[in-house]
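ok so heres the complex, four chains, lmk if somethin looks off
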Amino acid sequence: MLSNRQNEILKLIIEEYSKVPVPVGSKSICDKLNISSATVRAEMAKLEDIGYLEKTHVSSGRVPSENGYKYYVNNLMKPKEMTGEDMLNLQTIFQNKSLVLSDAIEKSLEIISEITNYTAINLENNESRLKKVEVVPLSVDNLLAIVITDNGHVENKKIDLKNSDLEEIRKTVELINKLIVGTPINEVSEKLEYEIKPIIGQYIQNHEMIYNAFYNAFSDLKNKDDMTMKGKNKILELEEFSNNADKIKKIINKFDDENIVSSIKEEDGGINVYIGTENNIDEDLTVIKTKYNAKGEEGTLAIIGPKRMDYDRVVSLLDYLKSCIERE
Amino acid sequence: MLSNRQNEILKLIIEEYSKVPVPVGSKSICDKLNISSATVRAEMAKLEDIGYLEKTHVSSGRVPSENGYKYYVNNLMKPKEMTGEDMLNLQTIFQNKSLVLSDAIEKSLEIISEITNYTAINLENNESRLKKVEVVPLSVDNLLAIVITDNGHVENKKIDLKNSDLEEIRKTVELINKLIVGTPINEVSEKLEYEIKPIIGQYIQNHEMIYNAFYNAFSDLKNKDDMTMKGKNKILELEEFSNNADKIKKIINKFDDENIVSSIKEEDGGINVYIGTENNIDEDLTVIKTKYNAKGEEGTLAIIGPKRMDYDRVVSLLDYLKSCIERE
DNA sequence: TTTAGCAATGTCAATAGTTGAGTGCTAATT
DNA sequence: AATTAGCACTCAACTATTGACATTGCTAAA
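and the predicted structre for the whole thing:
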């Protein structure tokens, strides 16, 4: 159990370090607390023993450790009051009734990324079902196969059509629509293989091509995560990476991974914070994420920033955005 | 006019430098030509006077200048024989009749990026026309507006539908299909504004929303360049950037620009080489691009690599790919 | 319990010395 | 006239070395 003064010192160090990423010395703290630097040093030594602070070398100031941040997030941090302006900006978006939920979220994340200078992500994890399938002839020998899901995602595949009969294709499409509309997207390929294929094989000669086209369109749909990322490059401007080309390259590669958010440990109902090594992106980064559920539309919001991020501010922003979404 | 020996020395320097980006000294050249280093130095001094070579400091070896590369590309370089394996790989893709042209190109560029370690791009610049417009009801108050072009691109917008009459919407869609299908995509918004809007305004009450949805879908379509990029991050691994975080950030930002290829000077019919400052991406990079036209499907292929790239190899690859495409 | 004071430690930036690769020039050689 | 050996010179890159500075831990006094 930490004393009041220890809590206070830890909090000051974390907040100071979040402004300027340079080890914090005892002097800058004692100025604020009206105690001598020696006393502060003694307390810092204890905080280091417990494991909440670290030194970069014997005579350096202190830097918060991962556990220090954890303790701060769980015990010391108070969610920051949001500014009226930020609240207003987000509210306005959600009051615009012509915006669909996913578009509103996207716009909000853009704003959040802009005001925090961190990266903001929305990952929709809806169980979507097949809504409709159709074909549009484009030219003599090109055809477009279109697949639509009930949450509004569209995938398409162009097909080369030489020697195929348009009428046969129409029949196939009709069949697919009749038999597998309503099926959850990730069961569609299977159903296509075992239920549709045998049937079309029977009375449609040249069905291979059209069958494959739809098969491919379906697997594209299944594999495509519905993730939007705002301010992707913001993170590269952080001081911690300013002179570290290798780290920048590493992070860029991580950011290209579609599973960047979903591969982090599962979140519970609240706002979840994954500090440093707790996320598998980078030890100098923190990911804050939370789930939302608005009348069946489910997803995950995430913000990626430096380990020394403005925890209180980000948590409030995310919390507020979540409430906007769920109030919809 | 350069002497044979000067040509030979310039060529050796460029090819040596392309392997290892370190200034080339006279010694490494004289070993290969059986003349003394003093003679090589004298020739190098002349090549520097002409402006084909540069020094990084008074006593450094020589580095090819931009003009040096230009001279090399125009006069010294012979397109390299392609390896049978590379040719076979590309041919196989184009013989696969079930692949649509754009997919075949995409696969080829993936291969080319893989074997060269450079970034490969396909930019389709078709004049596309509106093929079809339709709406799919998703739920009680959500509707999906879909727009399809004759070259097979699909854009969609979800619409919030409270208080709208489905029947009215159907009429609007019918009208759009009747009146503006066939219009070139970048004229569609205009036509929608001046020809359709007045008409639907007359006999459809609540048309604002549906009109806006389509208007937005159309502008998305217009603004979205059909560009695919393979090996985007390959370029970051180049030695010239290995310790230069700022340059990496700059290039990443450039690569996010949709106009990266089209903003470079217009290409003529052949293979065009834009060295260093001739492209507006980075002085250390070269862009090689060429147009293709296969039965009306037009586009531009581009490869982005270091200024010291394997010019002969890339030119042959691009030329071969172009011929594969146009033979289709 | 707190604090003043001090030795100890490590970073950072500046300075100086060393090495090595490479050049240009010149005079001798072919 | 062209080539080359030889030499003085230059500069980048590396390796100490130094002093200024920030900061610590410890101790003894308050």
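quick notes: The first helix of chain A runs from residue 4 to 19. thats all i got rn
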